[in-house]
Amino acid sequence: MNRDRIFSICILLFCGLMYMETFNFARGSDLRAGPEVFPRILIGLIAALALIHLIKSFIIKEEKIRQSFNRKEFLGKYWKIIAMFMIFGLYTLFLPILSFITASLIFLFAGQALLMGLRKKKLIITNLAVTFAATFFVYFIFTETLNIWLP
Questions:
Q1: DSSP state, 24?
Q2: For 52, 102, 114, 120, which has the most beta carbons within 10 A of its beta carbon?
Q3: Mean pLDDT, the chain, as a whole number?
Q4: What residue spans define the domains of the chain?
């Protein structure tokens, strides 16, 4: 069994466990969606992608090329991913302290600045627009539609 199959099976098992956990959430009324709806949609999407990945692992043959690990080359190639994980770690650390809106504004702006850069005025304006729109859209969806209060 190759690593893609193992990964896909692990993700599918994880999705199954998480889906079962959504039955422990408080149920919504008949007129309003409960807090279990959005996680189930996300879990279903992740499970569908894992299933596609599993099917592709049977179709595409794995190459047998083995390269030695070079830390300097790895860091040079994937430094933005590592930095995004660090920014996300800071986001989760400061979320209870700064509140959802403040922490999300900082996280989204910093993440997009890292990925897109801030070389042009247009990129800065786009970054700010997406940051504010996404933060307040998610806040509205959770508080008004799902009736889940964010910190």
A1: G
A2: 114
A3: 87
A4: 1-66, 67-151
